[in-house]
């Protein structure tokens, strides 16, 4: 059921991006490329999707997207600061109009009192001329690793459709 929802969201996202002649990129950590896969499952997605980034490690976040070592050390990979930097870095590198970033703790290990398993941060970036605007969200999902990752992918596409690409 969840994957069917993802497919429907991807189709709608593709339609809107085509209509507006805009492009998107993804910078993913805990979702491991699932959002990118979902977007590119749609035939013709090369019209609005050029590249994505799976930056699972802190080194990858820093090297590929320009996330600062200070942010990674001070706030951790699963944080508002890092997902905003991931999104803006992906936007710059991919030269896209919109970027989604995701970093979280899908489990079954790795949680803490401050950031329990199921904690996921999302970053969204867009540009207006030379300026880049970012927005972030924090969610706490329940379920196993698969469920947390699926809910993260759904939330990403739904949020992009509802709040970032407004009619």
TrEMBL record:
Task: Name the top EC class.
Answer: hydrolase
Q: Which UniProt keywords apply?
A: Hydrolase
Q: What is its EC number?
A: 3.5.1.42
In terms of superkingdom, the source organism counts as: Bacteria
Q: What GO MF terms are annotated?
A: nicotinamide-nucleotide amidase activity
Tell me any Pfam family this protein matches. CinA
Domain (CinA C-terminal) ranges? 8-163
NCBIfam families, sorted = PncC_domain, PRK03661.1
Please report the name of this protein according to its UniProt entry.
Answer: Nicotinamide-nucleotide amidase
